Amino acid sequence: MTLAFRESLTSLLPAPQDTLQRHLGQMTAQDWAALSELLAARLPEFDAVIALPGAELLGEQVAQMRGVPLLRADLSTGQPRWDKTAVTGEALLVTAQLESGEAELAAVQQARAQGLTVPVLAAAVERTSLGGRQRLTQTGAVIRAALQLADTPRGLNVERRAPDRWLTSA
Q1: N or C: lower Cβ tally within 10 Å for the chain?
Q2: Which CATH fold would you assign to the domain 3-158?
Q3: Residues 120/130, Cβ–Cβ less than 8 Å
Q4: What pLDDT is recorded for position 88?
Q5: Residues near 83 by beta carbon (within 8 Å), at least 6 away in sequence
């Protein structure tokens, strides 16, 4: 299911960060569809989806498939906030690219302040060299990444050291 998504990104590698960022920013709803279907099918139950900027299409599709509300995170104030606050329970946090985890951590903290817990974070791409996974697992969240990339002297490349293989059977 994620083969087309992974191939579209790995065909760019090795690549500088801006190439990856540009590619993710240009993805259409159709480009995100297979990954959305997989996330909706394989992740545990949740009551809402929180989408960080850049992951709005992915979050929208997952929320629609699961029949739950989508909360679009607005980071313009320095602290994330979303357009709906009447949701409680568990939320799936969706990000296009997990890097240092600072934006995701701020969103988790804001979710908690509004009565939501975030047991799972789904990342289309995880930059393993930047420490986001370590920062977020300290909150108790499980990280699920469709593609893990490492920083190498030649640019970003597929993570080979200890990749998270939760999607390889899909």
Answers
A1: C
A2: Rossmann fold (3.40.50)
A3: no
A4: 86
A5: 71, 72, 74
CA distance linking residue 96 with residue 54, whole number of Å: 6
DSSP per position, 94-149: EEEEESSSHHHHHHHHHHHHTTEEEEEEEEEEEEGGG-HHHHHHTTTPEEEEEEEE
What pLDDT is stored for residue 120 in this prediction?
A: 96
Q: Which two tokens stand for residue 168?
A: 């390889």
Exposure on the CB side of residue 145, measured as CA atoms within 13 A: 23
- Neighbour count for residue 43 (Cβ, 10 Å): 18
What CA–CA distances, in Å, run from 29 to 21, 26, 58, 60, 170? 16, 10, 7, 9, 20
pLDDT for 76-112, tens place per residue?
776 666 656 678 899 999 999 999 999 999 999 989 9
69: its two tokens: 């509300």
Write down the pTM of the prediction.
0.90
Query: What are the pLDDT digits (tens) for 18-35?
Result: 999 999 999 999 999 989
